Amino acid sequence: MDVQLSGKTIGLFGKLHPLTLKAFGIKTADVWAFEVATKAIEKGFSAQDFKPAKDVAVLPPSLRDLSVVVDKAVTYAQITSALDKTPLDVNLSYHLIDLYQGEHLPAGKKSVTFSLSFSHPEHTLKDKETDEAFNRIVEQLRTQVGAELR
Asked: What's the whole-model pTM score?
């Protein structure tokens, strides 16, 4: 199969032929391969589109789940923008783990749940630091998108 970008073929992927597998002594029958011209992808981006990578935390993070109720019209992008703009003294990473719409919620509302990971590059966080960061996030979401804790 072709890999296309803006209608132009920039690569291919597919399952390897059984004779190719046999020639290389591969006994697994379900092997796939791909090739992509990365230069074509690079041309679609500028250096300003990328944020510098953060150092990988070497100390254990403090994990929390956060469930909030927001209007159905609030987008994921609005929520993550509020998370990203929260002034914190610690590092934050997050992942959406649940989106619920249905009974047990007021009409016109949805519940979103995030897994939050707090860390600091120089020390293991104390509960007080994690609580402070969590509370700032809750307040930021309340102010920016009208979120309420679930």
From this structure: 0.65
